[in-house]
Amino acid sequence: MQSMTSAPTPAMVRASQAYQASSAHRNPREQEADIFRQAIGALRSARTQGLIPQVRALADNRRLWMSVIDLVSDPTNSLPDGLRASIISVGLAVQREMDADKPNFDFLIGVNENIAAGLAGNG
Prior knowledge:
Elements: H1 10-24, H2 28-46, H3 51-73, H4 81-99, H5 105-120
Helix pairs in contact: 2-3, 2-5, 3-4
């Protein structure tokens, strides 16, 4: 009987090493912007799909914003207090929108786009 788990193939190992090497040279803010871009892509795709893709995209976006709020709420966070409060306020607005019976995907996408642009230095 064959084992259900298998060792990574050499190609998988090389791909993992390449990803780690490329990430090591990227600005952390750009990496954070990429996380928002992934959420944007999922929300864009889901807004015209059925309920399951929408629920999945909203759940992923909720986890993202819960993490953001947790991080900026941490008293050791080095961002200025006013900026931290503004980010929390935006995060709470996003959460309220996601709790709506019919969330406005365009609003959620727009907020995420603005955050991604700011992180990438384009906003």
